[in-house]
Amino acid sequence: MANKYIEVVKRWRAGEEVSVEALQANANAANASAAYAAAYAAAAEAAYAALYAADAAAEAARAAGYKAARAARAAEAARDTSRAAHAAYVAADKADYWVKQYEELTNDK
After folding, report:
1. Which of 18, 30, 54, 78 could form a disulfide with 5 if both were Cys (CB 3.0 to 4.6 A apart)?
2. pTM, rounded to two decimals
3. DSSP E strands: which ranges in the chain?
4. Residue 47 contacts residue 26 (beta carbons within 8 Å)
């Protein structure tokens, strides 16, 4: 039996367009369900990690767009964008980790 919260994260990780609002709703719903089982806690962690990664990627895009208009601050923009992009990468890795944890706990692969 597939977990609907994990499925949203898997779709997002596969490159499907999932809005930040949908990730937030998914994370909130998964968190509410987490009280019932350890497997759902892993689902909630994966959902929140996906939300964080999406937010970090959006912040990287905002930083790049805003800062690009200011040539004098290009170095700062590159640093900020690099940090946000790295945060997005780390959070995406965390999402993968929690999906794997869920699958191991439930044998749902």
Report:
1. 30
2. 0.49
3. none
4. yes
